[in-house]
Amino acid sequence: MQGSARRRPFPAAAPGSPPPAGPLYPGRHGAVKAEDTFKTSPFHLDLWFYFTLQNWVLDFGRPIAMIILPLEWFPLNKPSAGDYFHMAYNVITPFLLLKLIERSPKTLPRSMVYVSIITFVMGASIHLVGDSVNHRLIFSGYQHHLSVRENPIIRNLKPETLIDSFELLYYYDEYLGHSMWYIPFFLILFIYFTGCFTPVAEQSRMPVAAMLLMGPSSLYYWYLVTEGQIFILYIFTFFAMMALVMHQKRKGLVLDSNGLFLFYSFIITLLLIAGWVGWLWNDKILRKKYPGVIYIPEPWAFYTLHMNNLHAARESL
């Protein structure tokens, strides 16, 4: 028809050229597709090394840095060295988790990953504030092996409504902050784990570097589970990983080097937790702080109960 524009067909793609971008070709981390093929993925030594190193330095090391550095450098009414460590952790960890997801050979659910990362950052930030104040209270005589109301420096506060405020702070630190921090953390690790399978049995082996890194990684997860009081979350994640391994084995699929590293790290972590609980099984004071069926004392509660008193006795000599 005269005056009407004719549609021009799309040019055919050249043989071997990549497909055009658009709704028919979702991004790398879009919804999981049934036609995904299993690809090989080498061991991510750089990411796993950086991940383990920053966990030890920025997470485990932050309360240590706060205790050993001179108090004059970081007054009690200002952020401590541990707080700056925590701030760096809140930025670096989600970045490394995203890089880990990017290297997955399998297409992963992008929306779930993004929501998990956002929740992780929010929970870790909530924990930053509560943990900062709670650790500062150590310098005033606060004892982590006692509950908030049983602590001598809290018990005598006037008016008594101030005790409720400290209990609210403890709730943000130990419950809400930990939940919003650790649930997305383990969820992202599990999402990544679902893509660590291969049909080639020769690829189901770890390099020497992975075996050397597995010890520090497992020890950090032990600290994370015990100090964070997240054993139920950890064990459910581990059981889900075991179930997935058995399910994929029926299809003829085995874990690749990255999957083996993560899976074996969780197994060693479970053994470390069992040894920790067995060692402190008859500690009556810690038993009182951690009642119930699941008894897993926090390392810093053990420190304030036993090691801190030992250091004070040595200094008095």
TrEMBL record:
<feature type="region of interest" description="Disordered">
    <location>
        <begin position="1"/>
        <end position="26"/>
    </location>
</feature>
<dbReference type="InterPro" id="IPR029255">
    <property type="entry name" value="CLN6"/>
</dbReference>
<feature type="transmembrane region" description="Helical">
    <location>
        <begin position="181"/>
        <end position="201"/>
    </location>
</feature>
<dbReference type="GO" id="GO:0016020">
    <property type="term" value="C:membrane"/>
</dbReference>
<feature type="transmembrane region" description="Helical">
    <location>
        <begin position="113"/>
        <end position="130"/>
    </location>
</feature>
<feature type="transmembrane region" description="Helical">
    <location>
        <begin position="47"/>
        <end position="69"/>
    </location>
</feature>
<dbReference type="GO" id="GO:0005783">
    <property type="term" value="C:endoplasmic reticulum"/>
</dbReference>
<feature type="transmembrane region" description="Helical">
    <location>
        <begin position="84"/>
        <end position="101"/>
    </location>
</feature>
<protein>
    <submittedName>
        <fullName>CLN6 protein</fullName>
    </submittedName>
</protein>
<feature type="transmembrane region" description="Helical">
    <location>
        <begin position="230"/>
        <end position="247"/>
    </location>
</feature>
<feature type="transmembrane region" description="Helical">
    <location>
        <begin position="259"/>
        <end position="281"/>
    </location>
</feature>
<keyword id="KW-1133">Transmembrane helix</keyword>
<dbReference type="Pfam" id="PF15156">
    <property type="entry name" value="CLN6"/>
</dbReference>
<keyword id="KW-0472">Membrane</keyword>
<keyword id="KW-0812">Transmembrane</keyword>
<dbReference type="GO" id="GO:0007040">
    <property type="term" value="P:lysosome organization"/>
</dbReference>
